[in-house]
Amino acid sequence: MGKPEQVCLTCCGESVHYPRFGDAIRLVKATGATVELISTLATAPEAVLREMKRRLG
Asked: Which of left, alpha, beta for 23 (phi over 0: left; psi -120 to 50: alpha)?
């Protein structure tokens, strides 16, 4: 079985409110895949935005 090329982090509702959102990003990045996030980010907690910038920026 191969490794994923891309993982889309989206679900019913706002993905950035998932309590282990940072862990999910780290796991995807560890596979070498790119992360696709579908979000408005309008209600994202500031700590989540900082981590996203650090991890994905």
From this structure: alpha
